[in-house]
Amino acid sequence: MIGFIHPDPIPENYVHQQFCFQILQPRHVKLDYAAVMSSKDFLRRWSISEWPTDDFSLDENLEDLDAAQKDLLRMGPQNIRKVQNKLREMALAMGIPEKQLPKPKVYATKR
Torsion over CA of 72, 73, 77 and 78, rounded to 10 degrees? Predict the structure, then answer.
């Protein structure tokens, strides 16, 4: 069996004085689209791709947001743990006290 860290329940958001984390949902599409298009040169260099193209549309971004939610489900427990650990590391680096972060729980997957 493989253990993984999983907060219970998974928080829908985290609010801090300087920022907030929220699970991306279709209602965020306009904000996400603005962030993507204003960062397109960086994203192209980072991903070593042509995404997002200059004609990337708001509708395409909505489709990508829906796909991102599906991708999280497809990641599997080991990769979810990596993402959770990185988010925890980032939150601590930004000065969020450990006691304010969700308590991780260890679950086992069936083999």
Answer: -40
